[in-house]
């Protein structure tokens, strides 16, 4: 899978994958990204309820060479942002569409080298399954 993933295909795959249950989409994406990029991915989980032992993924943050890509879920809606970071300081944040976020994530993983080919393959397999 050396070639870039076509952004249209990625958007279509996202729409098919997330169509049913956004929470399940977040859980699945976190489960794929955490082991593939352990040093670059931070997953935030919160309890489902006050006395519940069940945890839910509420945000996925991926550190890239140009900043921080964050995908979060709140009130049944996904929010995607890109934060520019210079020397550890956030200097700006921009909201994006989820397909654009996934495309940027895929490109960012692709530019880090062969060590993350497994991460790109994992992301692609998750979206098209």
Can you put this structure into words, describing what you see?
The protein is of the alpha+beta class. It has one domain (7-128). The chain is 40% helix and 33% strand. The chain has a 5-stranded antiparallel β-sheet with strand order 1-2-3-4-5, with helices on one face. α2 runs antiparallel to α4 (117-128). The longest helix has 15 residues, at 22-36. It is globular. The two termini are 16 Å apart. The mean pLDDT is 79.
Q: Quick summary of this structure?
A:
The protein is of the alpha+beta class. It has four helices and five strands.
Question: What is the first-to-last residue Cα distance?
Answer: 16 Å
Strand order, largest beta sheet: 1-2-3-4-5
Low-confidence parts: none
Integer average pLDDT:
79
Rg, alpha carbons: 14 Å
Structural class: alpha+beta
Fraction in beta strands: 25-35%
Furnish the topology, listing elements before pairings.
Blueprint: H1 7-18, H2 22-36, E1 41-47, E2 55-63, E3 67-74, E4 77-86, E5 89-96, H3 98-110, H4 117-128
Antiparallel strand pairs: 1-2, 2-3, 3-4, 4-5
Helix pairs in contact: 1-3, 1-4, 2-4
